[in-house]
Amino acid sequence: MSHISLNVKTRSTGKRAAKDVRQAGMIPGVIYSKNQEPIAVTVNPLDMRPVVYTAKAHLLSVTVDNTQNIECILKDISFHPMTDQILHFDLFGITQDEPIIAKVPVKLVGNSKGAMLGGIVQQITKKLVIKCLPKHLPTQVEVDITNLEIGNSLRLREVSWEHLTMISTPDVILVSILAPRVRAAK
Question: Is pLDDT of 169 > 90?
């Protein structure tokens, strides 16, 4: 699991305060932690890029006002519907001895037998919801598709990973190998 450092500053709460933060070119957010009051924060949009625009899951080492360090995961993020600018983010503080629930990207590995015969690999599920200790949180879960033939699919219940408990539905299809399309002769 990789760590990303993020420096944030505390801010006042309320809709007007959040609007003022956005007008100043910053992003408002909140850090939630178990048995602690939420902390309203603000961050530079450039600092959020490695957290948001990535295909991998990360643990965050958040420094609040250059004093308090909190280990977090990104829990939620809101985007503007027209411009795709980040409007707000929620972080969740974690402890190393308590399991966390997180969304993790699915990466397909291997060359499918069906794909080598002309089949089309169709990845149905891009992210899975998992539960694990923070030290076992992977940046992505790998699914081996080497043995899949044309017409085969792989469901979540057919694979497992050490130290991870799947929260996603076991019947969800991860990947399918479709038959190639054939054009009719003229």
Answer: no
Beta bridge partners of 129: 103
Of 107, 53, 44, which Cα lies nearest the Cα of 77? 53
Tens digits of residue pLDDT in 123-136 = 999 999 989 888 88
- The answer to whether the Cα torsion of 107, 110, 1, 44 is positive or negative is negative
Share of the chain above pLDDT 90, in %: 25
Task: Check residue 15 and report its DSSP letter.
Answer: H
What are φ and ψ of residue 16, in 5° steps? Answer: -65, -40
- Predicted TM-score (pTM) of the model is 0.73
Range 102-131 average pLDDT? 90
Q: What is the CATH number of domain 3-94?
A: 2.40.240.10
The CATH number assigned to the domain with range 101-178 reads 2.170.120.20
Contact of 57 with 139, CB cutoff 8 Å: yes
The separation between CA 136 and the C-alpha centre of its own chain, rounded to angstroms, equals: 15
